[in-house]
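Objective 1b: paired records.
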Amino acid sequence: MEKVRIDKWLWAARFFKTRTLATEAVAGGRVHVNGVRAKPSKDVQTGDRIELTVGQMPWQVEVTGLADRRGSASVAATLYTETPEAAERRRVLSHQRRVAPPVGADMGERPTKRDRRRLDDLTGRGRPGKGR
């Protein structure tokens, strides 16, 4: 086996749970092979560099093995090697997300019922026929 479709390889390397998710990621432009945006039918071979985004995590890997069937996680880990720069960047991003305040923490206290009614009146979402 000298070449494998990129969507099959991403699924076999366990970057995505299903082949459909892998195909959607490739078609959506989140996968680049050797610096060029790939289509799901693009063939990859040993030595190719793949840049992909899974969720919010960017990956940069080099293909070291080929597989078109999904195997164990230990076998999948042998299909690629991650570049040291990308591994460090993923570690930093992970740490930043872990220590970042939760979404909405900077909004202050919750609005009172009176505040909500005023906001609804201003935005036009107030209930019609209710005189306040």
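Objective 1b, second protein:
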Amino acid sequence: MVVIAAVDRSDRAPNVVAEAAKIADAFETPLHVVHVLSRSRFVELELDTYNETGEAADVDEIRSTAKRYAEKAADGIDADYEAVGLMGDSVDRIIQHAEEESAHYIVVGPRKRSPTGKALFGSTAQSILLESPVPVVTVLSE
């Protein structure tokens, strides 16, 4: 069993990791800091690699990039953690990881959005809240 800190590249990510670390410590369970690269970001990175080298990007290298984003979000926390880099749909991959690891909790940091924005655009955090098989903790920014 693990606690998952689902992070993006925003300034909210360190707060998500810090809260997840507290929960993991309370349950004496491992902490996974997870970043998922979207398909569009994957295509951008692959195109950049091709333009620079003339070769297709290595999938393992792209996963390593996602893992580095997770590590950056966890920079400065005083807790043991495993950085996990995944690719694909953020919601699906985070929930899949939670199921595979028998997670206790998923911790997310949703963006503040207007009521219109909530109605028109999907939210990763909202989708995780609705689809997660485990409890989800939300960390609101100040």
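The chain is about 50% helix and 20% strand. The domain at 3-138 is CATH 3.40.50.620 (Rossmann fold).
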